[in-house]
C-alpha cells in the first residue's frame, strides 16, 4: 500500500483563505493585547506619580493621560451631557459628564462625574442628579476621551442635556464656547450625588485578546492540517 497525495485546487484555495483569515485576525488580536499591555505599563508608572494640579495653563495630554489630577472650582450646572450605552454589571446606564470651571480662571475641564442607571420604562428620562453650587475640589484620573463606541445612525447635535453616544472635547469646546483643557477627568473623589464611580480600567481585556488570538491561530493550523489529511489517500502500486 502506498500513501499518495492528491492535490486539488478547491480544497487548496479554501485552506489558504482560512489560514490567511486566521493568521490575520490572530495578529490583530495580538496587536490589541500589546496596546493594552502598553497602557497597563503607563498606568502603573503614572499612578505612583504625585497628583497633577490643573490650573489655567493648558496641559499636554500626552504627559497628563492616566495621571491622578486635582482641580478646584465649580461645576457648570447648565451643560450636562449623558453618554448612553454604558452598562454597569449588565445594567443599562449613562456616564454623566459636566464641565468644571477652574477657580480663578476662564479655563474649564470636562469631568465624568459617574454612572447612573437608565429608566427602563422611559429611555429619554434623565436621572435627577444633585450638583454642588459652591466651589469644591475634584480628584480623578486624566483621560484623553471618555471612550468611543460604534456610532449607528446619525448623532444628535451637541447641546445641554443631550443623550449622546460619543463626545469629543474639541467639539464640546466649540459648541459650548467654553475654554477647555484637552482632557477629561474620571472623578474618583466621593460626592453625595448617587453616582457610581467604578471606572473600567483601560487596560482590561489583555487575557481575552490573547485567548482570541490563540483561537484564530488554531483555526489557521486546523485548516492546514485538514488540507494535508484530506489530500493524502491510500492506493496500491
General description of the model:
The chain has 237 residues and is of the alpha/beta class. The chain folds into 2 domains: 2-39 and 206-235; 67-187, no CATH class. 32% of the residues lie in helices and 26% in strands. It has 4 helices and 10 strands, in the order E-H-E-H-E-E-E-E-E-E-H-E-H-E. The protein has helices spanning 9-47, 61-64, 169-176, 206-231, and strands at residues 2-5, 52-53, 68-75, 81-83, 93-102, 107-117, 136-143, 163-164, 179-187, 232-235. It has a 5-stranded mixed barrel. Strands 1-10 form a two-stranded antiparallel sheet. Helix 1 packs antiparallel against helix 4 (206-231). The chain is elongated, with a radius of gyration of 25 Å. The mean pLDDT is 87.
List the helices and strands and how they pair.
Layout (H helix, E strand, L loop, with lengths): L1 E4 L3 H39 L4 E2 L7 H4 L3 E8 L5 E3 L9 E10 L4 E11 L18 E8 L19 E2 L4 H8 L2 E9 L18 H26 E4 L2
Parallel strand pairs: 2-3, 4-8, 6-9
Antiparallel strand pairs: 1-10, 3-5, 3-7, 4-5, 5-6, 7-9
Helix pairs in contact: 1-4
Tell me the fraction of residues in β-strands, as a range.
Answer: 25-35%
Q: Largest sheet at a glance?
A: 5 strands, mixed, barrel
Main sheet: strand order: 3-5-6-9-7
> Termini separation (Å)?
7 Å
Q: What is the N-to-C order of secondary-structure elements (H for helix, E for strand)?
A: EHEHEEEEEEHEHE
Instruction: Give the count of helical stretches.
Output: 4
Number of domains: 2
Rg from alpha-carbon coordinates: 25 Å
Secondary structure class reads alpha/beta
What's the helical proportion of residues? Answer: 25-40%
- Work out the number of β strands: 10
- Which shape, going by the Cα principal axes? elongated
Poorly predicted tracts of residues = none
Mean pLDDT: 87
Amino acid at each position: 500500500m502506498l500513501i499518495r497525495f492528491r492535490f486539488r485546487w478547491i480544497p487548496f484555495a479554501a485552506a489558504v483563505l482560512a489560514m490567511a483569515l486566521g493568521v490575520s485576525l490572530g495578529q490583530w488580536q495580538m496587536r490589541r493585547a500589546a496596546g493594552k499591555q502598553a497602557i497597563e505599563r503607563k498606568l502603573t508608572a503614572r499612578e505612583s506619580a504625585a497628583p497633577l494640579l490643573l490650573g489655567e495653563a493648558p496641559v499636554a495630554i500626552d504627559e497628563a493621560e492616566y495621571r491622578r489630577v486635582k482641580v478646584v472650582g465649580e461645576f457648570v450646572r447648565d451643560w450636562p451631557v449623558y453618554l448612553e450605552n454604558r452598562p454597569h454589571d449588565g445594567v443599562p446606564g449613562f456616564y454623566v459628564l459636566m464641565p468644571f470651571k477652574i477657580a480663578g480662571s476662564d479655563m474649564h475641564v470636562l469631568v465624568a462625574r459617574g454612572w447612573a442607571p437608565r429608566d427602563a420604562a422611559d429611555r429619554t428620562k434623565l436621572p435627577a442628579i444633585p450638583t454642588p453650587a459652591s466651589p469644591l475640589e475634584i480628584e480623578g484620573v486624566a483621560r484623553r476621551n471618555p471612550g468611543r463606541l460604534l456610532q449607528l445612525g446619525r448623532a444628535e447635535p451637541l447641546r445641554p442635556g443631550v443623550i449622546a453616544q460619543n463626545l469629543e472635547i474639541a467639539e464640546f469646546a466649540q459648541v459650548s464656547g467654553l475654554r477647555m483643557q484637552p482632557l477629561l477627568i474620571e472623578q474618583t473623589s466621593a460626592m453625595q450625588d448617587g453616582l457610581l464611580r467604578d471606572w473600567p480600567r483601560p487596560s482590561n481585556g489583555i487575557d481575552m485578546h490573547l485567548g482570541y488570538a490563540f483561537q484564530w491561530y488554531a483555526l489557521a493550523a486546523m485548516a492546514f492540517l485538514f488540507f494535508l489529511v484530506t489530500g493524502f489517500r491510500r492506493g496500491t502500486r
